[in-house]
Amino acid sequence: MLPKLETIDFYTGERIEYITYDELEYICNGLWSQYRILEGRKSGYRLLRACFIFSFLFFTGARITEFLLSQKFCIDFEQMNYYIPQLKKKYWKKLPDDPYIDPYERFENGLIKYVEIPIDHTPKHHIKYWKEWLKNRDEEDFLVDIKERQVRNVIYKYSKEYLGRKIHPHALRHSLGVYLTNDLKLPAQDVQKIMRHTNPDVTFRYIRLKNIDLKEKLKSVKGRDNEELDD
């Protein structure tokens, strides 16, 4: 048996934690199936919420604070856009010595604008998950009714249950970068816009994970060599 391997960005030496699209499908299909069995019960409600959290964070790349501060009207299904709330810098991250500021308090005092990103890359069955969760929420409601610690616990719990390992919420943001680059083959500048990276070097760490393309190129070279030998 191979040891558990980590994906390392060889440029920075940092570990990049992410899940694949297939792993997301495995989690969301399982949660959705359980929800359909338990629909109408409190436990079913929690399963649908978990399905929405995994799917939404994967396909939007929203940071956890952005996610918690997003309201139902931030998702435009007609235009397939997501309007992400942005805060003043001093409200973005708390420093180690700062007192804890509730995300909703940060929202009230720090909101300066909304940034628009497309969500056309989201598969139709995942949009169905989103609409099912949001149908009972008002336009002014936040997307979820739980706090940051609880969102983290949802992701820890179900990633462990379905994948056998705990992942962090930010891993779902990395997952979008890998998905856009490897699965959808988007060019770096488009990935940078969707991920809202101010520094293109941050985007290029996903490019450096494209071993699939490298393998295909090597196979094609090997094929040409074989053809020359046959001649």
Overview of this protein structure:
The protein is mainly alpha-helical and 231 residues long. It contains 11 helices and 3 strands; from the N terminus they run αααββααβαααααα. The protein has one domain: Intergrase catalytic core (hpI Integrase, Chain A). A hairpin with a 4-residue loop joins strand 1 and strand 2 (81-87). The chain starts with 20 loop residues before the first helix and ends with a helix. The model is unreliable at 1-6 (pLDDT under 50).
Descriptors for this entry?
231 residues; mainly alpha; hpI Integrase, Chain A; three-stranded antiparallel β-sheet; 11 helices; 3 strands; disordered N terminus
Helix and strand arrangement:
Blueprint: H1 21-38, H2 42-60, H3 64-69, E1 75-76, E2 81-87, H4 89-92, H5 103-110, E3 111-118, H6 124-134, H7 148-163, H8 169-183, H9 188-195, H10 200-207, H11 211-230
Antiparallel strand pairs: 1-2, 2-3
Would you identify the regions where 5 or more consecutive residues have pLDDT less than 50?
1-6
Judged by helices, strands and strand pairing, the structural class is mainly alpha
Q: How many DSSP H or I helices?
A: 11
The N- to C-terminal Cα distance equals: 41 Å
Shape by Cα distribution: globular
CATH topology: hpI Integrase, Chain A
Name the CATH homologous superfamily: Intergrase catalytic core
* Overall average residue pLDDT: 83
Strand % is 5-15%
